[in-house]
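Subject: Protein record for review, amino acid sequence with backbone structure tokens
Category: Structural biology, sequence-to-fold work with a learned token vocabulary.
Format: Residues in single-letter code; tokens as whole numbers, each standing for a residue.
Body of memo: The sequence and its backbone structure tokens, given next.
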Amino acid sequence: MVDSGNMRGARQAERRSRKVIVPELTGMRLRDAQIVIAQAGFAAADGRPNVLVRYVEAYAEEFQVVAQLPVRGQLVDSAAPLELQVARKSWSRFLPQLYSMANEDNALLQQFLWMFQQIHDKTADTIERVPTLLRPLETDAQYLPWLGSWLALQLETDWTDTQKRQWLRVAPALYNQRGTKSALATLLRMYLGFDAEIRENVWPFEPFRVGVASEIGVSSTILPPLNLAHCFVVHLPVADTHFSNEQIVRIHRVILAEKPAHTMYYLTFAEADAVEDATPFLTIGDDALSAES
């Protein structure tokens, strides 16, 4: 069984060590440049690009990137910081002329105002993007568990962001089919990556009938009264050795969350591949004696 925490750490270390080519960002709007940076493969330890935005006075449209560092075409580490200089009108123009004039005496004041202006713009941008926070394919990865909590969905910590987005996108559409065979089959296909066979109105064990269908101590199974109309079997076409104990628990969690409350189910797996006959490494007999002689 592989520790999921170690797997995530290995993926993050591999992502940090990758080399990527810096794209051309000058001339783009800031929001478009951030999308290009993410698509180019830049990602820090938390999965988000390390971008430093600096506001500057420039003859360009508002929020247009006027300079970048590193420049286009350089091969850098995927976790390396990127500095973008963005055109913006300073709040200092609202001050009295004595303080709004661009000179050495007012340079510190203008730099001081840039900090508050960036905080204000970041907050305003978040408010404008509120509708996108509710869209699984567009929201930031950090909000995916939050969206899952709205729908009572369990997002596994070792899933990729793509898996989480697909789960959030498809699951709400299945709510009007909840408790049906098709909905359970769709969720299991999303979770497992292959189709599971769902057999309705069956149970893997025969009823206990002494002397007819079972032998005490050999093939007998004691079960509570069962109504086959409320029973089903979920059969996976792979051996149980294909899954870890933690994954099997998760499969049960998916079935329990989707099945009707009054039903009972049984999870079965394909038989494991037969082990080939062991090859003897020592033979006692005429061949061995002749070999020794």
Summary: Confidence is low (pLDDT under 50) at residues 288-293.
